Amino acid sequence: MTEANIWASDPVLARIGSLLAEMGLDGIGPDDPLVPSGLDSLGLAQLTDLLMSEFGRPEVPSRLAQRQVESLTGRVLVEEFAAGAEPDSSIPLVHLRPVRDQDVPWLREITLGLDEVHRFIFRGAAVPPTRFIDDLFSNSLSCTVAETTDGSDGVGFLTLMAADPQSLHASLGVVIAPHWRGSFHAMHAIHGMVVHGFRNFPLRRIYLEVPDFNLAPRESTILTQCGRIEEHLYFDGRYWGVTFYRIERDDLPRLAALIGTVA
Protein backbone atom coordinates (compact mmCIF):
# COMPACT_ATOMS: atom_id res chain seq x y z
CA MET A 1 0.00 0.00 0.00
CA THR A 2 1.40 3.41 -0.94
CA GLU A 3 1.84 6.22 1.60
CA ALA A 4 -1.06 8.10 -0.01
CA ASN A 5 -3.32 5.06 0.32
CA ILE A 6 -2.37 4.62 3.99
CA TRP A 7 -3.49 8.18 4.72
CA ALA A 8 -6.68 7.57 2.69
CA SER A 9 -7.58 4.48 4.77
CA ASP A 10 -9.36 6.76 7.26
CA PRO A 11 -11.27 9.95 6.35
CA VAL A 12 -9.74 12.00 9.17
CA LEU A 13 -6.24 10.71 8.46
CA ALA A 14 -6.82 11.65 4.83
CA ARG A 15 -7.51 15.25 5.84
CA ILE A 16 -4.31 15.32 7.92
CA GLY A 17 -2.35 13.89 5.01
CA SER A 18 -3.75 16.55 2.68
CA LEU A 19 -2.84 19.32 5.12
CA LEU A 20 0.70 17.96 5.51
CA ALA A 21 1.04 17.82 1.72
CA GLU A 22 0.02 21.48 1.53
CA MET A 23 2.85 22.22 3.98
CA GLY A 24 5.32 20.38 1.73
CA LEU A 25 5.53 17.40 4.09
CA ASP A 26 3.94 14.76 1.87
CA GLY A 27 6.73 12.27 2.69
CA ILE A 28 5.44 11.82 6.25
CA GLY A 29 3.36 8.71 6.95
CA PRO A 30 0.55 8.31 9.52
CA ASP A 31 2.87 6.54 11.97
CA ASP A 32 5.93 8.80 11.53
CA PRO A 33 6.72 11.22 14.38
CA LEU A 34 5.57 14.58 13.05
CA VAL A 35 7.97 17.03 14.68
CA PRO A 36 11.18 15.03 14.05
CA SER A 37 9.99 14.67 10.44
CA GLY A 38 9.89 18.43 9.93
CA LEU A 39 6.54 19.70 11.28
CA ASP A 40 6.99 23.03 13.04
CA SER A 41 4.90 24.48 15.88
CA LEU A 42 2.68 26.45 13.49
CA GLY A 43 1.93 23.32 11.48
CA LEU A 44 1.14 21.35 14.64
CA ALA A 45 -1.26 24.11 15.69
CA GLN A 46 -3.00 23.85 12.29
CA LEU A 47 -3.38 20.09 12.72
CA THR A 48 -4.87 20.41 16.20
CA ASP A 49 -7.26 23.13 14.97
CA LEU A 50 -8.41 20.80 12.19
CA LEU A 51 -8.99 17.94 14.64
CA MET A 52 -10.79 20.14 17.16
CA SER A 53 -13.21 21.08 14.37
CA GLU A 54 -13.46 17.52 13.04
CA PHE A 55 -14.30 15.97 16.41
CA GLY A 56 -16.24 18.89 17.86
CA ARG A 57 -13.76 19.32 20.69
CA PRO A 58 -13.57 22.81 22.25
CA GLU A 59 -10.01 22.16 23.47
CA VAL A 60 -7.07 19.77 23.08
CA PRO A 61 -7.69 16.49 25.00
CA SER A 62 -5.92 16.52 28.35
CA ARG A 63 -4.14 13.21 27.68
CA LEU A 64 -2.73 14.59 24.46
CA ALA A 65 -1.48 17.74 26.17
CA GLN A 66 0.53 15.55 28.55
CA ARG A 67 2.36 13.62 25.80
CA GLN A 68 5.83 14.42 24.54
CA VAL A 69 5.36 16.42 21.36
CA GLU A 70 8.21 14.54 19.65
CA SER A 71 6.25 11.28 19.92
CA LEU A 72 3.11 12.53 18.17
CA THR A 73 2.08 10.92 14.89
CA GLY A 74 -0.93 11.52 12.67
CA ARG A 75 -2.57 8.33 13.90
CA VAL A 76 -1.91 9.17 17.57
CA LEU A 77 -3.51 12.60 17.10
CA VAL A 78 -6.65 11.05 15.59
CA GLU A 79 -6.90 8.37 18.29
CA GLU A 80 -6.50 10.89 21.12
CA PHE A 81 -9.07 13.28 19.70
CA ALA A 82 -11.48 10.42 18.95
CA ALA A 83 -11.24 8.91 22.45
CA GLY A 84 -14.47 9.83 24.17
CA ALA A 85 -15.06 12.65 21.72
CA GLU A 86 -18.55 14.11 21.63
CA PRO A 87 -19.52 17.31 19.88
CA ASP A 88 -20.28 20.21 22.21
CA SER A 89 -24.05 20.64 22.03
CA SER A 90 -23.61 24.41 22.13
CA ILE A 91 -21.47 24.40 18.98
CA PRO A 92 -23.45 23.55 15.82
CA LEU A 93 -21.32 21.78 13.22
CA VAL A 94 -23.52 22.13 10.13
CA HIS A 95 -26.66 23.84 8.95
CA LEU A 96 -29.09 22.77 6.26
CA ARG A 97 -30.28 25.09 3.51
CA PRO A 98 -32.30 24.72 0.28
CA VAL A 99 -30.47 23.65 -2.87
CA ARG A 100 -29.46 26.56 -5.10
CA ASP A 101 -28.88 26.65 -8.85
CA GLN A 102 -25.17 27.29 -8.29
CA ASP A 103 -24.92 24.06 -6.26
CA VAL A 104 -25.45 21.86 -9.34
CA PRO A 105 -21.77 21.65 -10.45
CA TRP A 106 -20.72 20.68 -6.92
CA LEU A 107 -23.54 18.14 -6.66
CA ARG A 108 -22.39 16.58 -9.94
CA GLU A 109 -18.86 16.39 -8.60
CA ILE A 110 -19.74 14.58 -5.35
CA THR A 111 -22.29 12.22 -6.95
CA LEU A 112 -20.79 11.55 -10.40
CA GLY A 113 -17.04 11.67 -9.76
CA LEU A 114 -15.31 8.50 -10.95
CA ASP A 115 -14.73 7.43 -7.34
CA GLU A 116 -18.17 8.52 -6.15
CA VAL A 117 -20.60 7.58 -8.90
CA HIS A 118 -21.54 4.28 -7.24
CA ARG A 119 -22.62 5.95 -4.01
CA PHE A 120 -26.04 7.29 -4.89
CA ILE A 121 -28.99 6.56 -7.16
CA PHE A 122 -26.93 6.60 -10.37
CA ARG A 123 -25.13 3.34 -9.48
CA GLY A 124 -22.22 3.83 -11.89
CA ALA A 125 -24.04 5.66 -14.69
CA ALA A 126 -22.34 8.99 -15.58
CA VAL A 127 -25.55 10.60 -16.84
CA PRO A 128 -25.77 13.83 -18.90
CA PRO A 129 -26.58 17.14 -17.16
CA THR A 130 -30.29 17.29 -17.97
CA ARG A 131 -30.94 13.75 -16.80
CA PHE A 132 -28.75 14.33 -13.74
CA ILE A 133 -30.99 17.16 -12.54
CA ASP A 134 -34.18 15.25 -13.29
CA ASP A 135 -33.00 12.08 -11.55
CA LEU A 136 -31.51 13.86 -8.55
CA PHE A 137 -34.64 15.79 -7.66
CA SER A 138 -37.40 13.53 -8.96
CA ASN A 139 -39.67 11.91 -6.40
CA SER A 140 -38.19 14.19 -3.73
CA LEU A 141 -40.28 15.37 -0.81
CA SER A 142 -37.57 17.76 0.37
CA CYS A 143 -33.87 18.18 -0.39
CA THR A 144 -31.14 20.23 1.24
CA VAL A 145 -27.44 20.99 1.19
CA ALA A 146 -25.57 20.60 4.47
CA GLU A 147 -22.67 23.00 4.88
CA THR A 148 -20.33 24.13 7.63
CA THR A 149 -21.82 26.80 9.84
CA ASP A 150 -19.64 29.51 8.33
CA GLY A 151 -20.79 28.51 4.83
CA SER A 152 -17.23 27.86 3.66
CA ASP A 153 -17.59 24.18 2.72
CA GLY A 154 -20.33 21.84 1.58
CA VAL A 155 -20.67 18.72 3.72
CA GLY A 156 -23.25 16.85 1.69
CA PHE A 157 -26.57 16.56 -0.12
CA LEU A 158 -29.59 15.05 1.65
CA THR A 159 -33.03 14.27 0.29
CA LEU A 160 -36.27 12.75 1.59
CA MET A 161 -37.78 10.81 -1.29
CA ALA A 162 -40.28 8.11 -2.21
CA ALA A 163 -42.69 9.36 0.44
CA ASP A 164 -45.74 7.17 1.06
CA PRO A 165 -48.62 9.45 2.20
CA GLN A 166 -50.73 6.50 3.26
CA SER A 167 -48.17 4.60 5.35
CA LEU A 168 -46.40 7.81 6.41
CA HIS A 169 -42.82 6.85 5.66
CA ALA A 170 -40.09 8.11 3.32
CA SER A 171 -36.56 7.16 2.30
CA LEU A 172 -33.47 9.20 3.10
CA GLY A 173 -30.89 9.74 0.37
CA VAL A 174 -27.46 10.93 1.50
CA VAL A 175 -24.31 11.92 -0.37
CA ILE A 176 -21.48 13.13 1.86
CA ALA A 177 -18.52 14.94 0.30
CA PRO A 178 -15.47 12.62 0.37
CA HIS A 179 -13.41 14.62 2.86
CA TRP A 180 -16.32 14.75 5.36
CA ARG A 181 -17.23 11.03 5.37
CA GLY A 182 -17.08 9.41 8.78
CA SER A 183 -16.99 12.78 10.55
CA PHE A 184 -19.24 14.25 13.21
CA HIS A 185 -20.22 16.81 10.57
CA ALA A 186 -21.71 13.98 8.51
CA MET A 187 -23.58 12.64 11.55
CA HIS A 188 -24.98 16.10 12.27
CA ALA A 189 -26.07 16.47 8.65
CA ILE A 190 -27.97 13.17 8.73
CA HIS A 191 -29.50 14.00 12.11
CA GLY A 192 -30.50 17.46 10.89
CA MET A 193 -32.30 16.05 7.86
CA VAL A 194 -34.12 13.48 9.98
CA VAL A 195 -35.28 16.20 12.38
CA HIS A 196 -36.35 18.31 9.39
CA GLY A 197 -38.39 15.40 8.03
CA PHE A 198 -40.21 14.62 11.24
CA ARG A 199 -40.85 18.24 12.16
CA ASN A 200 -42.20 19.34 8.80
CA PHE A 201 -44.03 16.24 7.54
CA PRO A 202 -46.38 13.75 9.26
CA LEU A 203 -43.91 10.89 8.87
CA ARG A 204 -43.68 8.10 11.42
CA ARG A 205 -40.62 6.38 9.94
CA ILE A 206 -37.66 7.15 7.65
CA TYR A 207 -35.74 4.38 5.86
CA LEU A 208 -32.16 4.33 4.60
CA GLU A 209 -30.78 1.72 2.18
CA VAL A 210 -27.00 1.41 2.48
CA PRO A 211 -24.57 -0.74 0.43
CA ASP A 212 -21.65 -2.12 2.45
CA PHE A 213 -19.18 0.14 0.64
CA ASN A 214 -21.09 3.31 1.37
CA LEU A 215 -21.58 4.07 5.06
CA ALA A 216 -18.82 5.08 7.47
CA PRO A 217 -18.90 3.25 10.85
CA ARG A 218 -19.43 6.45 12.82
CA GLU A 219 -22.47 7.42 10.76
CA SER A 220 -24.02 3.95 11.16
CA THR A 221 -24.10 4.31 14.95
CA ILE A 222 -27.12 6.62 14.78
CA LEU A 223 -29.23 4.16 12.76
CA THR A 224 -31.24 1.03 13.64
CA GLN A 225 -30.84 -1.97 11.33
CA CYS A 226 -34.08 -3.54 10.13
CA GLY A 227 -33.04 -5.86 7.31
CA ARG A 228 -30.27 -7.01 4.99
CA ILE A 229 -29.76 -8.54 1.54
CA GLU A 230 -26.46 -10.26 0.75
CA GLU A 231 -24.65 -9.76 -2.61
CA HIS A 232 -27.30 -7.36 -3.85
CA LEU A 233 -25.35 -4.64 -5.74
CA TYR A 234 -22.44 -4.89 -8.15
CA PHE A 235 -19.51 -2.47 -7.81
CA ASP A 236 -15.75 -2.58 -8.29
CA GLY A 237 -15.68 -6.13 -9.60
CA ARG A 238 -17.80 -7.80 -6.94
CA TYR A 239 -21.28 -8.01 -5.42
CA TRP A 240 -21.97 -6.23 -2.14
CA GLY A 241 -24.59 -6.65 0.54
CA VAL A 242 -27.12 -3.95 1.37
CA THR A 243 -28.31 -3.11 4.88
CA PHE A 244 -31.65 -1.43 5.52
CA TYR A 245 -31.99 1.00 8.41
CA ARG A 246 -35.00 2.74 9.91
CA ILE A 247 -35.43 5.80 12.09
CA GLU A 248 -38.65 6.21 14.06
CA ARG A 249 -40.08 9.54 15.15
CA ASP A 250 -39.63 8.38 18.76
CA ASP A 251 -35.90 7.86 18.06
CA LEU A 252 -35.12 11.59 17.97
CA PRO A 253 -34.10 11.92 21.65
CA ARG A 254 -31.85 8.85 21.34
CA LEU A 255 -30.20 10.21 18.19
CA ALA A 256 -29.64 13.56 19.85
CA ALA A 257 -27.96 11.91 22.82
CA LEU A 258 -25.71 9.85 20.55
CA ILE A 259 -24.31 12.79 18.61
CA GLY A 260 -24.41 15.42 21.33
CA THR A 261 -27.07 17.70 19.92
CA VAL A 262 -30.47 18.81 21.20
CA ALA A 263 -33.44 17.43 19.26
Q: How would you describe the overall organization of this protein?
A:
This protein has 263 residues and is an alpha+beta fold. It folds into 2 domains: 3-82; 94-259, Aminopeptidase, CATH 3.40.630.30. Helices cover 35% and strands 24% of the residues. The chain is built from 10 helices and 7 strands. It has helices spanning 3-8, 11-22, 41-54, 62-65, 74-82, 104-112, 129-137, 184-200, 217-220, 252-259; strands spanning 94-98, 140-148, 154-164, 169-176, 205-211, 224-235, 238-248. A 7-stranded mixed beta sheet has the order 1-2-3-4-5-7-6. A hairpin with a 2-residue loop joins β6 and β7 (238-248). α8 (184-200) packs antiparallel against α10. The longest helix is centred in the last third of the chain and has 17 residues, at 184-200. It is globular. It starts with a helix and ends with a helix. Mean pLDDT is 77; it is low at 1-5.
Q: Can you lay out the helices and strands and say which pair or pack?
A:
Layout: H1 3-8, H2 11-22, H3 41-54, H4 62-65, H5 74-82, E1 94-98, H6 104-112, H7 129-137, E2 140-148, E3 154-164, E4 169-176, H8 184-200, E5 205-211, H9 217-220, E6 224-235, E7 238-248, H10 252-259
Parallel strand pairs: 4-5
Antiparallel strand pairs: 1-2, 2-3, 3-4, 5-7, 6-7
Strand ordering within the main sheet: 1-2-3-4-5-7-6
Query: What low-confidence regions span 5 or more consecutive residues with pLDDT below 50?
Result: 1-5
CATH class of the largest domain: Alpha Beta
Proportion of strand residues: 15-25%
Terminus-to-terminus distance: 42 Å
Q: Indicate the CATH architecture of the largest domain.
A: 3-Layer(aba) Sandwich
Number of strand elements: 7
Which value, in Å, is the CA radius of gyration?
A: 19 Å
User: What's the tally of helices?
Assistant: 10
Q: Mean of residue pLDDT?
A: 77
> Any idea of the CATH topology of the largest domain?
Aminopeptidase
CATH superfamily of the largest domain: Gcn5-related N-acetyltransferase (GNAT)
How many domains would you count in the coordinates? Answer: 2
Secondary structure: helix percent = 25-40%
* Helix/strand structural class: alpha+beta
Shape: globular
Main sheet characteristics: 7 strands, mixed
Order of H and E elements: HHHHHEHHEEEHEHEEH
